[in-house]
Amino acid sequence: MWRKSIGILGLLVLSAAPAKADWYRGESPNFIVYSETTRARLRDRILLLEAFDRLLRGLTATTAPPSPNKLRVYLAHGIGALQYVAPVGQNVGGFYRASPDGAIAIADEYQNWRSNEDDTLLHEYTHHFMQQYHPAPYPTWYAEGFADYLMSANITPERIEYGNYNPIRASWLVSRRGWIPYEQILFGNPRRLSAGRFYSQSWLLVHYIMANEARRAAFVRYIQAVTRGDDARAAFTASFGMGATDVDRILHEYARRITFHRITRSGTDPAPPIRIERLEQAGLDTPLIEAALTIGVRAANRRAVLNDARRAGRGDDAFGKRLQARAEILYGDVAVADRLLDELLAAAPTDAELLYLKGLRHLVAGRRDAAARRAEYRLAQGFFGRAHRADPNHYPTLFRYAEALSEGD
Does pTM top 0.85 for this prediction? Predict the structure, then answer.
């Protein structure tokens, strides 16, 4: 497939309850994708993500097999769906979050269709890919700039293009008088800067680095120095042979002659296996409940999510019952969680996720009751041990097991 391959290191956001919709679940070698759309549209999105994963592997010389912990992707409709999962602003098109209970990426399909095509979705997956396969203490400008560098990739049967600009990002670079000094981009606090300019100028800097093999090697030296604990400013100057004021001058000139990469595809990649099923629902957007519970629900929304999970668990659907059990453990009635989990485990006694939830139930109880902590943590350890034996790759089990070992804390 590849005419050339570049080896690089890099890394590389109180709403109403979700409304009723038809949701499908698709699974492929690297992803579990939920989407409130048609089967055909969902299949296309999964094929895009798998092709983008192959592009990232080629560009970063990644040879590791797919992670057994597949990324869960939620393709929702509207900002309200995103705000149900996490407190984000009105202009956010998607976000990636990781927690001890798992990692998720969510994108607003309205924006994917209307304004930025697939850029948000690919941006968020780039974050996950680099944290999964090339973890390092990347500065924020590089984490976001690298994700922007690849998010505009255009993948067709004939060619792959990457490194092109996103029109919204590029619009922030038109007026150069408004640029943020690169001293602040490189070493300042991104939260205190204009998000539009920070992302756009970070993309430009990463584009400049990736355009030249020597500059890519300089970035590797820079990350190695920062990892050792060297001063970031001194490490940047030593690695690149220039300081922040030089970056200002160079990038103003570089922006006038920027290009992108095109790879001609020599053949058709075999289609990955994809399995798609329609979710049974209780009049709710149940995948969004799962996403919110995975990354943790903010206090102001916990009652609403708990009530939604309880509605989801009323029927005979096992997915809804799992959601309710998790919500009861975290924010509700542990006795109800026990009843649900015991019922589900009777039908699937070696299910790693159910055993994990049973362990989590005792871990949470131990956190809340100091007098019972030792006994509850011992029970949690037993269930986590069984979950690990059922699925050694389920990393939340290992994290929580380590937590349960701290019974005297």
Answer: yes
